[in-house]
Amino acid sequence: TGAISSLQRQLEIQESQLRRTKSENETLQKKLREREDQLQAMSAKFCSLREEREDEETMVTVEEENCSLRQVVTEQESQLAEQNKLLSELQGTVSQLQAEVLSSRSHLHKQQRAHEAMQSHAKTLEHRELQTRVALERITSRFERYRSKIIQATFSTAGSKPPQAELTDEEVLEAMQKIINERMEFYQMLKQKGIK
């Protein structure tokens, strides 16, 4: 956005300079036409004086004025050519700046669309994260209930001492394995004695 503002300011400056140059160009063209009119008038006057064969001093003065006017016209034509060249350069600069402004705006719109897409994706991820957390809490709660029931069943058997502190999973597993081993031994003993 800052780049676009800067380009627009440059564009306004160049357009202002272009308008000023066009105005100067029109003024020069007007002056040039006036000088050409004066030159034609002086030429006509010179021709008229020649035809009337006025005195030589007047002819010299007219010729000098004529040369002076030709020189002014030549200078103004040169200045006009320079102004036309500058005008062409300014028009090229203005076109380039306009193209850069359009390019910057297009780039900005693309960035905005990409930002909006990222925000939408982020919202989707946040929603999925929330769903995952809820599911994880539900599973954790079920696991804790299941673990509590296992501990309760393991230490509620005859001869078992209830735990005095929080048990680790390994300790619960060892207690269950001990009960299983004892039952297997009891089963083998019954089997040896022939008791079904």
From TrEMBL:
Keyword 4Fe-4S: no
Name of this protein: CCD27 protein
Originating species: Nyctibius bracteatus (Rufous potoo)
Keyword field: Coiled coil
Highest taxon of source: Eukaryota
Residue stretches in coiled coil: 4-45, 73-100
UniProt-listed PANTHER family: COILED-COIL DOMAIN-CONTAINING PROTEIN 27, FORKHEAD-ASSOCIATED DOMAIN-CONTAINING PROTEIN 1-RELATED
